[in-house]
């Protein structure tokens, strides 16, 4: 009931139809598919959906599809596939990647993820922007569970 109350509080002020539908899907999945998941994770998904927007969902969906193909794309490939214009990549994609990785653990990133070999970092550019631009990215199990919980079956390919 706490989850339902938290969702209802957020949906009351949500103006985007697609996000309201995602909240409805989250509640439905909590009551039917995810009843065995820990309460803390379920509440985290409510908070995440409240904070995230469609770019985050598209990014997770893209990374999930890449994981099936055993690929871990870099920043430029992700931006290109999501059709983010070059001049907006820094302002849109960097914060989205940081939020998904640092705030929620829905993605992981690193140098050499695909090869399994990483080297000692000899970089002076370890800012969030430098990390996001230089790493390969992959969806985590938590990211997959979140995506499954909020995805409306008709919108998934």
Task: Provide the descriptors you would attach to this structure in a database record.
157 residues, mainly alpha, Arc Repressor Mutant, subunit A, 5% strand
General description of the model:
The model has no long low-confidence stretch (mean pLDDT about 80). The protein has a two-stranded antiparallel sheet with strand order 1-2. Helix 1 (about 1-10) packs antiparallel against helix 2, helix 1 (about 1-10) packs parallel to helix 3 (about 40-50) and helix 4 packs across helix 6. It is about 60% helix and about 5% strand. With about 160 residues, it is mainly alpha-helical.
Number of strands: 2
Report the CATH architecture: Orthogonal Bundle
Supply the number of structural domains: 1
Secondary-structure content class: mainly alpha
Identify the strand order in the major beta sheet: 1-2
Mean pLDDT across residues: 82
Q: Tell me the major beta sheet.
A: 2 strands, antiparallel
Separation, N- and C-terminal Cα atoms = 32 Å
- Into which percentage range does the β-strand content fall? 5-15%
Uncertain segments? none
Shape: globular
What is the H-and-E element order? Answer: HHHHHHEHEH
Topology:
Elements lengths: L1 H11 L4 H16 L6 H13 L2 H15 L6 H7 L7 H15 L3 E4 L17 H7 L1 E4 L1 H10 L7
Antiparallel strand pairs: 1-2
Helix pairs in contact: 1-2, 1-3, 2-3, 4-6, 6-7
């Amino acid at each position: 009931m706490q989850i339902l109350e938290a969702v209802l509080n957020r949906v009351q002020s949500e103006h985007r139809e697609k996000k309201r539908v995602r909240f409805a899907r989250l509640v439905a999945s909590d009551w039917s598919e995810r009843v065995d998941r820990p309460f803390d994770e379920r509440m985290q998904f409510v908070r995440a959906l409240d904070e995230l927007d469609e770019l985050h969902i598209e990014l997770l969906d893209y990374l999930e599809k890449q994981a099936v193909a055993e690929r871990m794309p870099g920043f430029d490939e992700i931006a290109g596939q999501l059709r983010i214009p070059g001049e907006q990549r820094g302002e849109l994609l960097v914060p989205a990647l940081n939020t998904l990785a640092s705030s929620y653990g829905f993605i992981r990133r690193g140098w050499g993820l695909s090869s399994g070999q990483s080297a000692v970092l000899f970089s002076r550019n370890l800012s969030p922007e430098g990390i996001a631009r230089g790493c390969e990215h992959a969806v985590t199990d938590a990211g997959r569970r979140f995506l499954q919980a909020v995805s409306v079956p008709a919108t998934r390919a």
